Amino acid sequence: MNYLIAANWKMNGSKEFIESYLSAINIEDNPDVKMLICPPDCYLNDINSNAPTIISRGAQNLSTSSEGAYTGEVSSEMLIDHSVEYVIVGHSERREYHNETNDLVAIKFKRSIEANIKPILCVGESLEQRQRGETFDHIRDQIESVIKKDMINKSDRYVIAYEPIWAIGTGETATPDMANEVHVFINQTLYDNGLTQDNNVIIIYGGSVNSNNASDLFKMSHINGALIGGASLDAYEFTKIYNVAEEINNE
């Protein structure tokens, strides 16, 4: 698989929305370009009932525990019951609004790997960190908090999503060169820690991706798809972005 085009619906959606949305999605099976939808947990069953099997299912979060008195939490085992293949961990909104630390994100990452659910590890810097020249140090810390706890093996399958916080939902986006520079750094960080980017690891970009900028982003050497927020709520726009990836993959 060369590209992963993932939709993070965040806290949006309804049964009516899902029915209309999925009826507008028209794609063919392509093993090199995967479409993924991550709805709110309560709509996972609606995705399973209505989406074609070529669309992968994902969740937006998972618990650090497998069961117990954890009101409001969802375990990896519960996600598996809903055919979940991917789960987002460490999204900046979880880190900021729910005080998720690197250590907590690392535990969720490990829980996902152990459950054979592919984690999408989100990393990214704030505008202030970029302006202070701390982008690379910050992202290295976020990745190595997982790697150096021996939670990743060369055979594990996972995704790293670079999402500059200043570009999420703002309409701003890193230039393709800026984004690719960070992706190259992420790949080097994996290599420096004894892990290489191969078919088991995909590095994707997130931050105000749309059909107008997708082509320039996907043509970069180390950008293998996107984690898309707002634009993914429009089925036609999301399909356009997917089609861009497919066209580039076929070139």
Describe the structure in your own words:
- By secondary structure, the protein is an alpha/beta fold.
- The chain has one domain (30-229): Aldolase class I (TIM Barrel, Alpha-Beta Barrel).
- It has ten helices and eight strands.
- It has helices spanning 15-24, 44-50, 76-81, 92-97, 102-114, 127-131, 135-147, 176-192, 214-218, 235-250; strands spanning 3-8, 33-38, 55-59, 86-89, 118-123, 158-162, 201-205, 225-228.
- The chain has an eight-stranded parallel β-sheet.
- α5 packs across α7 (135-147) and α7 (135-147) packs parallel to α8 (176-192).
- It is globular and about 45 Å long.
- The mean pLDDT is 94.
Keywords:
251 residues, alpha/beta, TIM Barrel, 10 helices, 16% strand, globular
* Fraction of residues in H or I helices: 25-40%
- The figure for the number of domains is 1
Number of strands: 8
Write the CATH architecture name.
Answer: Alpha-Beta Barrel
Distance between the termini: 15 Å
Runs in which pLDDT lies below 50 for 5 or more consecutive residues are none
Percent of residues in beta strands? 15-25%
CATH topology: TIM Barrel
